[in-house]
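Record type: ASSEMBLY
Status: queued
Input:
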Amino acid sequence: MRVPVDELKGHLDLVLLASLRGGPAHGYALIDVIRERSDGVFDLPEGSVYPALYRLEAAGLLASRWTTASGRRRRTYRLTGKGKKRLERERGEWRQFSQTMTEVVA
Amino acid sequence: MATVLADDDRGRGLIDRYLVDLRAQLAFYGVGRRRAERAVAEARDHLLELAAEDGEEEAVRRFGSPEPIAVEIARAGQPVALFRSALVFLAAVALFVLPLYGIPENTLPPAPWDERPDYLTWKLNVAVGAFGIALAAATLAVTAAWLSWRRVTFVALAFAGVSLVVSAIIGTIGAVQWAQAVPGSGTTLALTLISTAGLGLVAGAALTRAFSRPFPSRAASASD
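Status: finished
Output:
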């Protein structure tokens, strides 16, 4: 089952913050992480990850810089301290929400 | 998307055409040059990675249409653009002290009266009062923009704009009447009018930029 893009968009920020918990990554690698962790359920237009990254960076939750790997220049993103705190808070809120929904809907 | 794929120009051409379209969309939706260059560079890197696996057509298809991406990038930059506009507006309002006080204080010839006439005094008081309100509201707008309180920012900017207009109009009428009452005040009047007009243009441009929404609503920007 693939999640409709519009449903995922509302949670894309949390998905991106969580995907960067493992360490810095560039946009292409982040899409791979998201697809892998979701077993292909989250499959969004890959270009849509960049506006979300820019928004998170403008909010101070991410920082980025140009790096060079295999002769290719890439923009790599990492969580800031503020981003880590926001991630932990939203993970807690999500756990509570999904637990409650499961109890109500089950 | 169909337009990008229709001309089957095999090889590098497809990604290059996509990037040209993306650059044009970013410019259309008001994304600044530096941000646009960065977005195009990242898109190029991503597309090349995809193309290395699955070819250019699949890469462009998986990346998504340029327009919704450009809209969302423009939207992502809006808080910063709003803050910058509010800051420019505040600077223009603050500099309004020049035509209101600085220029008259330093260029007016001595007045022929012991006590300023009432018809000039009330205008001066209203102009200064409205200026004070405009300055306070503009400062609030900058603070609200910094905190990403969009509604408060827009309300404060609107309030500051109206106050500044009141101050400028009443102040200008008062300046003209003062020049008529005090011989040799022509230079002061000219300088006051020029600086008022100049600062008014800057303030107006900043407000226009702050209130402009060059891109469609969120409902229209859903990607395909």
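Annotation: The two ends of chain B are 9 Å apart (CA to CA).
Annotation: Residues 116 and 138 of chain B are 31 Å apart (CA to CA).
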